[in-house]
Amino acid sequence: MPNFSKDDLLKIASSIFCAAGAVDDIAQQVSEVLVLNNLAGHDSHGILRIPEYLKSIETGEIVPNARPEILSESVTTALVGGNWAFGQLTGLYAVDLAISKAKKNQVSVVAAVQAGHTGRLAAFTDRAAKQGVVMFMTIGTTMQPVTAPYGGSTAVMGTNPMAFSLPYLGGAPISLDFATSAIAAGKIKVAHANQENLPPNSILDKYGRPSIDPQDFIDGGVLLPFGGHKGYGLALIAELLSGPLIGSEKFPGINKKNGIFIFAFDAEIFRPADEYEKSLEEVLGRIKSVPPREGFKEVLLPGERGVRSVERREQDGIPVAESTWKAICLAAKSVGVNL
User: Fold this and answer.
1) I need a labelling partner for 278 at 20 to 30 A (CA). Which of 5, 20, 90, 137 fits?
2) pTM above 0.70?
3) CATH among 3.30.70.1270, 1.10.1530.10, 3.40.640.10, 3.10.580.10 for 1-65+304-339
């Protein structure tokens, strides 16, 4: 399995996106988000996505040199038009706008429409938490439904992810990021590339039968919501917040996707930062001190596994599955880049 440094992957990804039509700063920003996801151990939302994005550029689903813009705003709100730019670029633009408004006016609500695939949401909400802003972010999509509703056998929703991040000066942000499906579609790609089975109760095959074979999903199967009716309920909320609430259906393009919904507020809105930090550390310490049960080494906080992965992979390099690397090399060659 090939192993790369962070800088190597940034150069590789940037060169490919530039060759596909993106200007330097756009290619760099998109690549930084992808490689950050690899560093955090979320390979399903890292450079594995490069071939997919190049295909989206070919079909017009991504406009590689497009940039997001503000369509309307007030002191605490904004509606951003992504103009079918890279989803990472639109995500960064909308999140930075939400952070700025929250720091100036305590709270903000920002939505984005015509947004491409953003990938792991914690890459954006952590950005806010590191600047003292609490952030909730969610996305829904109906263009290519992959998830069945609770009790259903055919897909009608996307993976509809959600993320929450809170500041923690004593360490990395406390960050929760999850798909409302039992497994993220990108993780199925990773399992397929690594020839691994999926967890039970994650997918149905195209005939509506439970399966653990990632090929069954690729061949027309569907995802199931996590936790039965609870995951389905959260998925529906994500769909409504990022669709009907913000009016994303009024902004069609070559595809129809719901948008991005962001709620942010200054972490000092209720109490001084030092009081918050003291109380936060007491709660976290109480949770971390719980003795692990059989089969576990310790109790981890949300996001802690990713933080450790970043530290390890920055030092030891980022492993890339052989099949993923071959697919990236082939995709790169299609735009004139020889890896």
Assistant:
1) 137
2) yes
3) 1.10.1530.10
